[in-house]
Automatic annotation (TrEMBL):
Entry-linked SUPFAM superfamilies: Winged helix' DNA-binding domain
InterPro entries: LysR_HTH_N (IPR000847), Molybdate_resp_trans_reg (IPR051815), WH-like_DNA-bd_sf (IPR036388), WH_DNA-bd_sf (IPR036390)
UniProt domain HTH lysR-type: residue ranges: 35-92
Residues in coiled coil: none
MF term (GO), any: DNA-binding transcription factor activity
Protein name as it appears in the record: Molybdate transport system regulatory protein
Length: 127
């Protein structure tokens, strides 16, 4: 038996989801949504980039805003200049903490992830 991991098309991905009581689940989807709102200045554009409806994106933003002491996203309605959205300081801080936790968790678990990957059967034929 070889210690070489089987070939794969992509490296394994660690997905971190935090559950805070019954109030909030914060995971990669919400973090990506916050990140994209920060980049695009738009809840609608962020949702589209993730393949979700504006309604779904807005619902997730409302859930996050309600769960934290300070809103994570502020938005302005459309008008002659159009609407928009941006991360608040709290929103950027939450995103930064989540991304740091993600990176630290992946780094701390790298040996175990590699060991698990080495135990996989050959998945190159689409099994």
């Amino acid at each position: 038996m070889s210690d070489t991991p089987p070939p794969s098309s992509a490296p394994p991905i660690l997905r971190l989801r935090l559950v805070f009581g019954d109030t909030l689940m914060l995971g990669p989807g919400k973090a990506d949504l916050l990140d994209l709102i920060g980049q695009t200045g738009s809840i609608s554009a962020a949702g589209r980039a993730m393949g979700m409806s504006y309604k779904r994106a807005w619902l997730l933003v409302e859930q996050m805003n309600a769960a934290f002491r300070t809103p994570l996203v502020i938005s302005t309605r459309g008008g002659s200049k159009g609407g928009g959205a941006s991360l608040t300081e709290a929103g950027q801080t939450v995103l930064n903490h989540y991304r740091t936790l993600e990176a630290r968790t992946a780094q701390a678990g790298a040996d175990q992830i590699a060991a698990l990957e080495a135990m996989l059967s050959d998945m190159s034929d689409g099994k």
